[in-house]
Amino acid sequence: AEVHDLVRSGKADIGLVLTDDKEENDFVTYPIRIVRELIATRNRNISANDISPAAKILELQLVTIHSDSRSFAFYQNHFSKYDITLTPEIEVRQMDIICQLLKRTDAVGIIYDYLLEELRSKDSNFKELLLQSPLPGRVMAFIKRRDRIEDQSWGLFLQKFKDAVVKQNC
């Protein structure tokens, strides 16, 4: 919401956001990539295939985004169908803080999929747990106001950024 407000007010020319792919009337959206959320850990005692019972995994220290966030609400709703309540021991607002905590502990964390590769590059023990995410993939996208003129330099920047993201994902 803060990024949308900055772009809407003209304090920022463009913004990078996660969206559910519904374009808003006052913005033009330029999709970059699909972002999926997953549950990951470096705990050696948990197999990546260890999905049952989910309650056993979630009894471990859980590090997640703040409980008033949309993502946490989705997960809370999903697990409540199985009479499991998410009770995170540590709640933060910044995804990079979750990653720092996961690096230092054997906790379980809800992170973005592309961050798992970053964590794995530094520690091969990091793995995704095969708990079914209730969240659809969201779109990472640039937004700009519709009334802002799209000049040649902006188009060139966007193309270079897309090329870089594609190379990174290959």
Question: How would you summarize what this structure contains?
Answer:
With 170 residues, the chain is an alpha/beta fold. It is built from six helices and eight strands, in the order H-E-E-E-H-E-H-E-H-E-H-E-E-H. The two termini are 31 Å apart.
With strands numbered from the N-terminus, the spatial order across the biggest sheet is 5-4-6-3-7
Residue share in β-strands:
15-25%
Query: Structural class, from helix and strand content?
Result: alpha/beta
C-alpha termini separation = 31 Å
User: Stretches where pLDDT falls below 50 for ≥5 residues?
Assistant: none
Total strands: 8
Average per-residue pLDDT, rounded, comes to 80
Tell me the major beta sheet: 5 strands, mixed
Shape type: elongated
Present the secondary structure layout:
Blueprint: H1 2-9, E1 15-19, E2 27-35, E3 37-41, H2 54-58, E4 62-65, H3 70-80, E5 90-92, H4 95-104, E6 108-112, H5 113-122, E7 127-129, E8 138-145, H6 152-169
Parallel strand pairs: 4-5, 4-6
Antiparallel strand pairs: 1-8, 2-8, 3-6, 3-7
Descriptive overview:
This protein is α/β, with parallel strands linked by helices and 170 residues long. 36% of the residues lie in helices and 25% in strands. It is built from six helices and eight strands, in the order H-E-E-E-H-E-H-E-H-E-H-E-E-H. The strands form two sheets. Strands 5-4-6-3-7 form a five-stranded mixed beta sheet. Strands 1-8-2 form a three-stranded antiparallel beta sheet, with helices on both faces. Helix 3 links the parallel strand 4 and strand 5. The longest helix is centred in the C-terminal third of the chain and has 18 residues, at 152-169. The protein is elongated and about 55 Å long. The mean pLDDT is 80.
